[in-house]
Amino acid sequence: MLSVFLPRIGTVAIWRSRARALALAGVPAGQVLWRIEGDGGSDLFAGGEVAAGKGKALHLPREAIATLETALCHSDPERFHRAYDLVLRLSEGSLRWGDRSDVAMLRLLQQEKAVHRDIHKMHAFVRFRELSAPGATRRAFAAWFQPDHPIVEAAAPFFARRFGDMDWIIATPGLTARFEAGQLSFSLTEPGPRPPPDATEDLWRTYFANIFNPARLMVSAMTSEMPRKYWKNLPEAALIPEMIRQAPARARAMQEAAPTFPLPHVERILPQRPALPEGLSLATMKPALDACRRCPIGGCATQAVAGEGPGDAGLMIVGEQPGDAEDLAGRPFVGPAGQVFDRCATAAGLSRSAAYLTNAVKHFKFLPRGKRRLHQRPTAGEVVQCRWWLDLERKLLRPKLILALGATAAEALTGSGARLLQRCGTEEAGPDGIPVLISLHPAHALRLPDPTARAEAETRLTRDLARAWAITKEA
Ligand code: URA
User: Most CB within 10 Å of its CB: which of 177, 267, 324, 439?
Assistant: First the structure.
């Protein structure tokens, strides 16, 4: 049996050069005992390189090398032996890279994963204490950390990149990483006290207390992301048990402090509606709408989009809510859905300026995604809140007919959320007796990928617009 001793620093690089030399010398895996320096005994390589023999140079797939380098940072004492056996088999072609049915391959891949996870945890949970000497040109920091595996050399370059403008030491039970004047080096950890606490810890405590949201606490998810074993080295972790204890009461208080809206059905059974504010007219409604905070959407939109059209129009047309373009322009139906609307209205012989055009919800509800604002359908509660304005418009306008474009408008105007497609083209009675003609929303056509179906949707909308226009002109 041949003993090969690996140093505690630079272990993986030395294993690689030893494995290549052994493979070239034709030494089978079963004849090598891999050990870490300091374990006693004599090293096969101590008297020079092993003589070249009847073996072959190792040829490994590129991804195998990367995986081996990571997996060899695992703490499993058998890892060097198993890896040497595996590279011999890969190189001679009796094993395929990634073949999980091979026990050694499976173990290697699992250990690679475990090491990656440990490195990730070290990157996330190292906490530095400042140790700068007065007048020093570079600030100095130190941290203590206990990884599960000997990963310090693999994990340290991340800190060198991130904290390149300061000097620091990260001590672990095995190795210490040291970054001084831009140079990264490693040494065996000296026994001694951990760095003293300082203001940096207070900062971490404050930060952690601030980002903690009791209403979203999931203890199992939290302990899986920040396992308990790391808590002893995290200054902020001292706060965790108390925060968990207080979480239910704080969440309750947050809920109580949050604005509440009546459930949709409550509004329907209320015997009284609030009285109309004095002097509010269709023409003067916009500032009051801008200031409306009956639901939270108003706080996010650029402005409210009030209805537009003649104050004596016989036809009122109601959409869902303003879109991105309408929110910016402050006018209804001027974006892509507006173009469909205009096309259909023209085909129906209806001039946009002859009808009163408005929406069930007066503010744009969206989800920010980078520079884009993605349309979000208003909730039933938001529609109910905004119905106060819609009812006001109805009352002030007293149109002969209302055309509801889409499901949101249909529900806001009739109180019924029944399936839209079955109701399209039919007239229903509104609560004030004004008939409501149900139709498709113009955006529906925009969402249809099939050109024939799109044309069909536009034809249906055109037909309803023409019918609504004919009814209101006649009456
Ligand atoms: N969609 C609507 O429902 N209304 C608009 O004003 C614009 C798009």
Answer: 439
